[in-house]
Input
Amino acid sequence: MKLAFTTKNRNLRFATLAAIFLLVPFSSVFATEVGFPTRSVWFSKESLVAGETISIYTFLINTATDATFLGTLEFQDKGVAIGTTGFSITPTERSKIISINWNVTAGDHEISAHIVDARLATATSTATVAPIAPRTEVRTLTVVAPAPVPAPVTASTTASTTKTLTETIDQYVPTAVKDAVAPAGNMLEQARLQGVSTITKLTEANKTRIDELRGRTAPATTTAVLPFPEAGLASTTTNQSVIPPRVETPFRYVYWGVLTLVSFLFTLKALFYIVALGCFVALVRGTWRFIRRRRGI
Output
């Protein structure tokens, strides 16, 4: 009797294990799975710069055959929400990529996504569901602040720099040297200011002529001396060029470019004096070489 009882128990245990072995796989196959399959987030670009706006993505699945998976997806940085969006995945869609826009800031970040209020909705009812993975893995990254943009050089900046340079030179140059150089410096400054005035007038006249050639304004009637008075032409007439407009126009633009460069040289005081000093040094060296060559030194 004891042997028969033992054999019966063994058969019962075997049958139970077989049932579990057969039923568990089938139950897992037909179970509804919703949530994050990859447990990860990714970005619209890998190299992030502070101040720009990028997109953060994640991936959701819905294996239900007759219910829509819906809820709210919250993207977080170190547990603090940086953006939320609703989602809805039907049985025919089965999966969907969800994203938000994020304004990147400098510093260390821990980005993740979290499902809030997950539900499965059918034609007749809606029920709360526990996702297989309610939160993604944390994506860590460090964003470095961009290098500061240098301030643009303006006329006031140039004037301030020139004033500082002048004050520094005045501090270290002996008074006797300054008194000896002052007259020459005043003459050079007067020449610079006169050059600025002349270049401004030439530029305005050239611009007016370009407008006339392009038909923007009517030619002004002024008195001008024509080139060959001895050929019987009148000495005065309207301001008409002997060069065809289609030939003169390109040269006018080239002339405008040259005037702009020269104006830049005369307007920037520091640059003007540097160039003037360079020309003076070159003249002195050239003269000294010429004297040495003539004397055979």
User: Anything to note?
Assistant: Residues 68 and 90 are 4 Å apart (CA to CA). The radius of gyration is 43 Å.
